[in-house]
RNA sequence: GCGGGCGUGGUGGAACUGGUAGACACAAGGGACUUAAAAUCCCUCGCCGCAUGGCGUACGGGUUCGAUUCCCGUCGCCCGCACCA
């Protein structure tokens, strides 16, 4: 056996079969051990896994296998985020049913994942497109409807003209659809919404409890929720023949600047603006112009502030006899606050731009510290920082904060139209989550529209509302809508002819609760409450940063909604969150400028310089920048090919080495080779140590000391690797394993007495256990070679003897004036006085002192000595 | 524009709460073994200098016995948000 190279192609499928047959990774819900739930974001079944998946699942698998070794009852499931548009596109292209395409993809991707040797409980596999999954989603939708968490309203929506569907705000990136990239249009549609905004305050506050989340993600969610405190304020209209409306309600976060108000602004979509436009052609044209610009040309022209003077005037609320003009302005949003503002040009940049354009007064009311009240004036930039209020009657001299309180009290006590003129209010940027999608391949919204009874939920006994199989995709839009019979149904209440809802749910709904379904994937109800509560929240969730807002915020909302409807007892779905970096690769271009895949390139190194040429034609190829692996730049490396040539363990090991997991990692040929060499080195070490055990060691005077040193090395590695895995610092765990391997190999080459050889064997066994979470197949082969019983996958994590972690001696560096000049080895814990005496006696130090007395000697126990001359 | 993060050898990166900067790996160079190659093993590897030594963690300052780490300023890169009143 020894002397042979390790052959992953043979070994890996063998161990996968062994684990499978032994049901090693099948998790029981009634296992009494402490539960630990580790989850990687489940994939969309596109058909092939990519290196990003390999990295993600390798990390999760390390955590899962480590926690198993630690004696936890580990839940590590896998499923498929299987609804979504690509299946429909494929259906159009290939004339297959989206389901057929999806399930074929699932099958091939599952085989790929299985070839990675992941410790996954495949008995819990779920696919969101399966009625056995989505029927529960429909059932919970009905529960949430009845709990008042769902609404249906007509609203302006983001319409993706390419995908022909509605997008949520979160799915619009820089004015373009997140999937299609097409400029988004505004349309008015009746939509289903989850009332996520009801939870805005709670979702915001609870972020503080998510201490195991990256700060970055929490900040992003905080900004997204966008809480702002302000005042709702009524402006009385000066009576006019143009309207019967008597007041305009605005929202402001700067009521302290009310004395500087010079206009009131309305959104082009404000009801008053709309009403005025019916008798005013110019205004109607202005509003239409605003709509035309809308979101489409957002970046181009948004700098330009434009307004339209309605001719109406409002009474200034604090300055007697003064009135202000009412403008319709293009930059005011209807769906934030009240859709109306008051403009204080001196202290708001947008208001200032409008004021300058139309010659409105600019009166400063906040005085910057140190500025002269008589001469302070606003130029082209509004003053938005702190200062004291002036030019403001009874507010003069107050700070901004004090003035806000004072003015809120003032308006709170006055009434307009029988209402308080001002009311403190908190606003959020977060809007309700629109979930209607005009698509076939999604979870049908279980609702029936009856002309007599209105909109009704489908009775639960009639669930699931299944997608019809016989659909065609020969015209754009919603195939459910086009289906000849599917939508016609009898009203469940009165029996008269009614119509099914043909919208399906946003696929983010599917992924908002899959982690819960994994806890009881075959239950007849959406969840089994006690089981879910035992597993949740997920201890460690791992995935891409691109889901920082969408998926993670929706899931946090959905968990709360499931709590309200009694399906779970927890608030937060994910206790620990880790966002891993991307996998990148060099790009290559031919002389003609076309991208060339790495498989067709040979890279040559000559000294410092690298050059590349095409593998068959020999033509030179330009080496380009390092980019995220993408089909468009052809810089992808196929995991299948890597597994076939180097084995899964090598791919996994490489993905975990070197780069910190939260950062991008560059896939390189050399790096893979290195990983593969290490695999062979470990195997050789194990084989050598096994054969050494058959020889009789000679006597050795240093035997006990060498054995102790080796023992310390091994124990230290075990403790260090454990710490690094728990902190998800896989690159450092890998470095420590390398160090241990070097140490063991040195002893193997040097030999030693019986105690040393015993320590060597023990160290090698520990090494095998340390690599087991990362290179599980190799570890099993080594474990067997070492003659250990059972599977290393079932072996408990090696015990660390705390005594082996401490040294009784330490080497202290000695600095002179902060520069390292010497060192001294002393007993651990030696007092400062004793160290000082020892140091001063040293030749090096005496020489440096040159007869002088040091000014000061700093001794940090067991750390460092600094002699100041 | 606003918010957040980062900047360490040829490269990826280590360095616990301020205490020997460059662990570990990749690349490179040299050597051993070999008929040869592959594989493997050993050595060198921040910069300058023959050397005692000096300089080095983007740059400029500061605090400290001591700074990659803390503070201020400058430059550069990356990410998120972007008319939210």
Automatic annotation (TrEMBL):
Top-level EC class: ligase
Entry EC number(s): 6.1.1.4
Domain Methionyl/Valyl/Leucyl/Isoleucyl-tRNA synthetase anticodon-binding: from-to ranges: 715-831
Sequence motif 'HIGH' region, location on chain: 43-53
Binding sites annotated in the UniProt record for ATP: 631
Entry GO terms, CC: cytosol
Protein name (record): Leucine--tRNA ligase
Gene designation per UniProt: leuS
């Amino acid at each position: 056996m020894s002397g042979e190279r390790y052959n992953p192609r043979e070994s890996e499928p063998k161990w996968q079969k062994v684990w499978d047959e032994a049901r090693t990774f099948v998790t029981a819900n009634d296992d009494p051990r402490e539960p630990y739930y580790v989850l990687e974001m489940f994939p969309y079944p596109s058909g092939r896994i990519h290196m990003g998946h390999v990295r993600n699942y390798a990390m999760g698998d390390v955590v899962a296998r480590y926690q198993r070794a630690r004696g936890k009852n580990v839940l590590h499931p896998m499923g498929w985020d299987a609804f979504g548009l690509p299946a429909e596109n494929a259906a159009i292209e290939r004339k297959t049913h989206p389901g057929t395409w999806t399930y074929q993809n699932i099958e091939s991707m599952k085989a790929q994942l299985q070839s990675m040797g992941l410790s996954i409980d495949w008995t819990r596999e779920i696919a969101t497109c399966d009625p056995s999954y989505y029927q529960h989603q429909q059932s919970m939708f009905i529960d949430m409807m009845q709990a008042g968490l769902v609404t249906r309203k007509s609203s302006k929506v983001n319409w993706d003209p390419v995908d022909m569907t509605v997008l949520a705000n979160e799915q619009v990136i820089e004015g373009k659809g997140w999937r299609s990239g097409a400029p988004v249009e505004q349309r008015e549609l009746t939509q289903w919404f989850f009332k996520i905004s009801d939870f805005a305050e709670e979702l915001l506050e609870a972020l503080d409890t998510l201490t195991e989340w990256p700060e970055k993600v929490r900040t992003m969610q905080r900004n997204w929720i966008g809480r702002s405190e302000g005042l709702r304020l009524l402006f009385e209209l000066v009576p006019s023949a143009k309207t019967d409306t008597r007041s305009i309600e605005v929202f402001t976060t700067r009521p302290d600047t009310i004395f500087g108000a010079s206009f009131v602004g309305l959104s082009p979509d404000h009801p008053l603006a709309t009403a005025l436009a019916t008798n005013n052609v110019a205004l109607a044209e202005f509003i239409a112009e605003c709509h035309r610009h809308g979101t489409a040309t957002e970046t181009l022209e948004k700098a330009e502030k434009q307004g339209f003077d309605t001719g109406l005037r409002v009474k200034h609320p604090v300055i007697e006899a003064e009135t202000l003009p009412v403008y319709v302005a293009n930059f005011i949003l209807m769906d934030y606050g009240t859709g109306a503002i008051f403009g204080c040009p001196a202290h708001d940049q947008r208001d200032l731009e409008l004021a300058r354009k139309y010659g409105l007064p600019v009166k400063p009311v906040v005085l910057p510290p140190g500025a002269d009240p008589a001469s302070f004036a606003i130029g082209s930039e509004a003053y938005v920082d702190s200062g004291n209020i002036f030019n403001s009657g009874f507010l003069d001299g107050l700070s901004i904060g004090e003035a806000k309180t004072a003015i809120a009290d003032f308006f709170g006590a006055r009434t307009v139209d029988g209402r308080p003129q001002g009311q403190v209010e908190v606003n959020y940027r977060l809007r309700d989550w629109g979930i209607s999608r005009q698509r076939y391949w999604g979870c049908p919204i279980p609702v029936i529209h009856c002309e007599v009874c209105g909109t009704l939920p489908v009775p639960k006994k009639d669930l699931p509302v299944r997608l019809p199989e016989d659909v065609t995709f020969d015209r754009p839009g919603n195939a459910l809508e086009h289906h000849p019979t599917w939508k016609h149904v009898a009203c469940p209440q009165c029996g008269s002819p009614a119509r099914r809802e043909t919208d399906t749910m946003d696929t983010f709904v599917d992924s908002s609760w899959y982690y819960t379904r994994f806890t009881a994937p075959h239950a007849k109800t959406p969840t089994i409450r006690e089981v879910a509560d035992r597993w949740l929240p997920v201890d460690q969730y791992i995935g891409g940063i691109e889901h920082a807002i969408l998926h993670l915020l929706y899931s946090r909302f959905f968990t709360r909604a499931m709590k309200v409807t009694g399906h779970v007892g927890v608030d937060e779905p994910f206790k620990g969150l880790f966002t891993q970096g991307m996998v990148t690769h060099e790009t290559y271009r031919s002389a003609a400028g076309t991208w060339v895949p790495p498989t067709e390139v040979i890279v040559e190194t000559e000294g410092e310089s690298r050059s590349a040429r095409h593998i068959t034609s020999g033509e030179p190829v330009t080496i380009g920048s390092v980019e995220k692996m993408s089909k468009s730049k052809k810089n992808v490396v196929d995991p299948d090919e890597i597994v076939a040539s180097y084995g899964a363990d090598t791919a996994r090991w490489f993905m975990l080495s070197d780069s910190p997991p939260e950062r991008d990692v560059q896939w390189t040929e050399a790096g893979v080779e290195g990983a593969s060499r290490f695999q062979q080195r470990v195997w050789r070490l194990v084989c050598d140590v096994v054969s050494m055990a058959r020889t009789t060691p000679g006597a050795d005077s240093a035997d006990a000391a060498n054995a102790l040193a080796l023992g310390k090395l091994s124990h230290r590695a075990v403790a260090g690797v454990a710490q690094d895995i728990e902190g998800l610092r896989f690159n450092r765990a890998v470095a420590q394993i390398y160090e241990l391997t070097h140490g063991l190999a040195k002893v193997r080459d040097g030999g030693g007495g019986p105690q040393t050889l015993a320590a060597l064997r023990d160290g090698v066994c520990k090494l095998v256990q340390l690599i087991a979470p990362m290179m599980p197949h190799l570890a099993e082969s080594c474990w067997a070679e070492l003659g250990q019983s059972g599977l290393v996958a079932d072996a408990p994590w090696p015990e660390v003897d705390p005594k082996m972690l401490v040294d009784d001696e330490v080497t202290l560096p000695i600095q002179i004036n902060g520069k390292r000049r010497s060192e001294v080895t002393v007993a651990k814990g030696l007092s400062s006085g004793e160290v000082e005496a020892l140091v001063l006696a040293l030749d090096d130090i005496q020489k440096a002192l040159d007869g002088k007395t040091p000014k000061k000697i700093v001794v940090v126990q067991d750390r460092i000595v600094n002699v100041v001359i």
